[in-house]
Model the fold of this input.
Amino acid sequence: MSDVLNRLAYLQTRRDRTPNLDLARDLAAREDKTAIREIAQNMWNENKNIHWDCIHVMYEIGIIEPNLIEPYGEDFIKLLKSKHNNMVWGAMTALAEIARVKPELIFKHLDEIKKAREEGSVITIDNSISALAQTAAANEEYSRAILPYLLEHLSTCRPKEAPQHAERTLPAINEFNRDEFVKVLKKRQKNLDSAAFTRLGRIIRLAEKL
Done:
């Protein structure tokens, strides 16, 4: 194994996330594109522990600097079809970061993103909302295509999910669509407990100030 791969948690016989986090921070700080390419290639490693560690390192790099993982966006799209749940939510986490710098990738693959959201785990759903909201925020065309889908989700998701998903949708909200957003949230408030009611109220106030 290379020096880079030997820093992965699995190859250090560690069960915690610290080695992957340290590696991601180091590669991002040095903008080591050669090492990042090696990590990206090993997202397809036949050893599931290695490929999971690699996707973990990649999305952690993306959280720091999404431009460094943007060249591998199509790989993350392909990984949404993985049979392994952690690979799917790891890929969606990365795509949520890439959406900040290359929303056209997400828009190109809207159907795959929606399908993964509809079939995915809680983490996959959370990050799909972020990916879609960041994409909708990019321009009017994207907003017209995506915002109705996000609002429909906010109208029908489980009550306990409404505040968090409303927060994740906020990047897509502006002075032109805030009224529709606020209308949906006020309707959801009726079915929330006190803590969620208060949290959603804060989001409503933020939206109304846009």
